[in-house]
Amino acid sequence: MRIRMLVDMPDGASRNGEPWPARGEPVELPTAEAAHLVASGVAEEVTEAEDQDAEQAPAEPRRSRRKAAPEEEG
Hints:
The chain is of the alpha+beta class and 74 residues long. It has one domain (2-56). It is 26% helix and 19% strand. The protein has two helices and five strands. The strands form two sheets. The protein has a three-stranded antiparallel β-sheet with strand order 4-1-5, with helices on one face. A two-stranded antiparallel ribbon has the order 2-3.
């Protein structure tokens, strides 16, 4: 089952010796494990249509959250 993590797992947390995927990153897991994560609210199921759309659509540019410096008067 393909899921997308909705949270970041704690630093150092691993699954079968591998680090957990980052929040928003899709991953394929065994159905029982994936269903448990979805039921727990830490992941959501990724449908085939969403997966195909993500492959075809270009990544959106990230917007900066920094505030612009105030302009100097002079």
